[in-house]
Amino acid sequence: MNMWVEILVPASFFLAVVTGVGLTVYFRFKQRKLLADTTLKLLEDGKPVSPEVIRTLAQPVPQSQKDYRLGVILVGLGVAIYGFSVVVSLPTNGNTNLQDAIAGLAILPLVMGVTFLILSKLQPKL
């Protein structure tokens, strides 16, 4: 059993990194393909495709919307970590209470999420 843990823990970390990079590359490719398909469809329909149209189609998501999404994700992560520490009864070793440590760890994404939510509301809409 111990041998499997020594193999699976590092392997799962590297698999998570590779999965994250792979998903990022995939979705960027998918976004560019959608832009190309839309432009091609406009050209096939005989509509003029000016640089302004392409620039409008390729515009990224506004920063305030990104901040809002990231804030919601981080608040959810913080609540999930805190909920994990409440639901799972963790053993204590010595003077350190592991449940309190995990609850303290949940504060970081929770505070960062609230910060991004505030930023998304304070940014001027473009």
Shape: flat
Encode the helix/strand succession as letters.
HHHH
Low-confidence stretches: none
Strand proportion, as a percent range, falls in: under 5%
Query: What about the largest sheet?
Result: none
Count of helical regions:
4
Q: How many domains is the backbone divided into?
A: 2
Distance between the termini: 56 Å
Radius of gyration: 22 Å
Given helix and strand content, the structural type is mainly alpha
Average pLDDT level? 77
Total strands: the figure is 0
Residue share in helices? over 70%
From the structure provided, what is the oligomeric state, counting identical versus distinct chains? Answer: single chain
How is this fold's topology laid out?
Layout: H1 2-44, H2 51-57, H3 63-87, H4 98-122
What this model shows, in words?
- There is one protein chain.
- This protein has four helices and no strands.
- It has 126 residues and is mainly alpha-helical.
- It folds into two domains: 1-59; 61-126.
- The longest helix is centred in the first third of the chain and has 43 residues, at 2-44.
- It is flat and about 70 Å long.
- The N and C termini lie far apart (56 Å).
